[in-house]
Every structure is written in structure tokens, then in C-alpha cells.
Amino acid sequence: MAALLRAQFDLIETARPFLERLWSEWDETSVLCIYNPSRRNASVVEVIHTTHPLRYAMEIGADLGLAWGSLGKAILAELDEDVVEAVLADPGIGPLSGRANPPLAELRDELDGIKRTGCALYDDSRYDISGVAAAIFGRNRSVIGSIGLTMPSRRFALRDRDGMISTVRLAATELSSLIALKI
């Protein structure tokens, strides 16, 4: 247990400069999540909140379903097919919408696109939340978690999406390289 806690704190310490860089460039909430294979979900382990008064508050310790939002889907897209099917077989519901997990067939194209581009986008103007996230990896491309930005949809619509995607993807790639050296 102590080794797991130490590893988590090392990850947070290693990721902090990348979160700070995302935050300083975009002034949006930057978030680090770790993947929990046994529970097939992700947990928020570090957050730097935007300075804007209108924001979606992410809390450290919050659990996230993998079938929802950019942070979860960035992880889900990189997992083995049997794990994806198990995640979607669980009768989870969307944290904002209350809807059941989407069917695998509906998600397959989206997950393929995330894997191809290396970045997940989420934009739900009905609940005024958007996000951009990318998976982070350890050695042998084992999924460790995700890093990304969350913001209200209204601001996301005004942003340079391609620039934001590139910045998040670069942070995830650089962080993954650094983690792989430490593990």
C-alpha cells in the first residue's frame, strides 16, 4: 500500500510542471487522472483550477467513468478491447446526463478517432462543459491515466481547438516519456 501511495505522489510531482504549463497557456482547469484497472475507472489526483469565476470544478479524489468525458475516453481508447467491453457492460450512468453508458458500436468510431489522433474531445453545450485530454503511458505503452483541460462549452467554442489539442497531446507525450524513464 505504501509503495502505491508513493508511486502516486511521484506521478503527481512529475506531472505538475505539465499541468502548470497547460494552465498557464490556456488559463483553463488542468487535470491529471490515474487509471484504476481493478475498478475500471479513473481518479482525479491533481487539479489546477482556472482563474475564471465560471468553471467546472474538478475535485481531487473524484472517480470518473471511462465512457464519459475527455479524461475518461482518452484512457478508454487505449485499453484492450475486452476491457472496453467490460467497462461498457457495467450499468454506469453519465455523471451529468444520467444516461446509461453508450453502446459499444456507438463508441467504436469515437474511440478509434481518439486513438488515431491521440486526443479526446468532449463538448456538451447542454451542460456547458467541454474538455480536451490525452492518455499518459508508462513502459510498453501501459495506460497510466490522462491529462487534460476542462472548461465551460461557451469558452471552448471561442478557443483555438487545434492549438489546444496540440498542446495537450504534447504534454501527454512528454510526460509519458518522462514516466517511462522513471518506472
From TrEMBL:
The record's InterPro entries line, in alphabetical order, gives: GAF-like_dom_sf, HTH_MetabolicPath_Reg, Tscrpt_reg_IclR_C
Domain IclR-ED, first and last residues per copy: 1-181
What protein am I looking at?
Answer: IclR family transcriptional regulator C-terminal domain-containing protein
- Give one Pfam hit by family name: IclR_C
Q: What PANTHER family does UniProt report for this protein, alphabetically?
A: HELIX-TURN-HELIX TRANSCRIPTIONAL REGULATOR, ICLR FAMILY, HTH-TYPE TRANSCRIPTIONAL REPRESSOR ALLR
